[in-house]
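Anyone else keep sequences and structure tokens together like this?

Example one:
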Amino acid sequence: MGGRVIIAIDGPSGSGKSTLGKALARRLGFLYVDSGAVYRAVGRKAIDQGLSLEDHEALERVAVEAAIKLIGDPDAQRVLLDGRDVTAEIRLPDASNASSVVATVPGVRRAVIEKLRAMARESNVVMDGRDIGTKVFPDAKVKLFLDASVDVRARRRCDEERQRGREISFEDVRAEIEERDRRDRERAATPLVKADDAIEIDSSWLSVNDVVGRVLEIMKAGG
């Protein structure tokens, strides 16, 4: 593949996008960009400013003004918001909820898309999210749509939360994922859909290495 390479990974919450994205970035030496972290940072700033999540004009202003940087290698990436490290804060429940709300606001999505495109101007990139292959980089050379069953995704999220020292019930996580899926698929601004030319991979019963191997085969075949 000649020229700059963009690998776009889309899919629902908990499907393994970030795990796959990090693994591919390590293997290929690409920049890894977690688009969800950018939306979480916007949500964090909105909360810190005491904004109503129903005030779309204010949320758009925050998204435009926020200086968001992702630094470090894929396994230790840090998120800077206006120069402050918010890596841990954006994973707290309030920021998670806020990010799923602000991501439905058209003005916020426009602002974040511009930030994501700026991050990818100088490097080969692996980027994951909900609309990377359909909206952010519709001309990406490799487009993937990663999916998994709701139960598998809920179990993965429970494991992640326990690793962070937070106990949460499987039923609560499953309900949260189903609600997130509904928001993602029904939002007016770039809803979650599979790009026509994306290759769909169900990761429910595949290891990370299995999925990485599949993607490398796709790249070798020319996408």
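And example two:
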Amino acid sequence: MIAQLRSELLKQRTTRTIGLLLLAATGLTLLGVFVEGVSSTLAELAQEDQQVTLLGAGSSGAVLFATFAGLIAVTNEFRYGTIRPTLLVQPRRRVVLAAKLAAAGLTGVIFGVACVALSLGAGLAILAARGIDVAPAGADLAALAGGTVAAAALSALLGVAIGTLVRNQVGAVVAVVAYAFLVDATLFAAAPAVGRYLPGKAGDALAGQPVENLLAPGVGAAVLAAWTLAVVVAATVRTDRSDV
């Protein structure tokens, strides 16, 4: 398992797309912070909810691109045929899947930390430049940061599981984007009592987003973990029963 994990971590470090995804996530974070910080009035920025939105602008980029990183960790192998030598070296498929999950989880943590650091740093700088006192307490900011990192890590695991189920890289990416914008967002808008239990909105709750009708952060963490476990189990079954 250790040798396979080292192999997967090496793949993560040397895959150019992962670096590009991290760059895109941090760029989206900075853009979000800038838009929120500049477009809001002083009265709006003085409100705690608005400041949480500003300082937590990194959560969406971290979660989305961590999911893509998890997808690519699997679908690249099927796209380029490297899954065959991988399984020749380590024929125990569950070990390979577990190593991919662990490596992707660490990558998700990196995405979360990078985006949180940028959103907090840039957000606090904007508040200071505009002469606004920080309303959220230090414990609230720590919970916001920790929730975002945890949501990004779980999302990366989901990405690995979805990639294992779908395998086709383009199809997997399209499926995730379509789900996020057509299913998750639409159902939450139409029926928030149901939609808040979907993975995307559970992740928003875990990340501490100040959106009405979301679950409490702790409940959101449990729901997202349950979704992740369910999809990982389905991916394990597919890995055991399908050819490569």
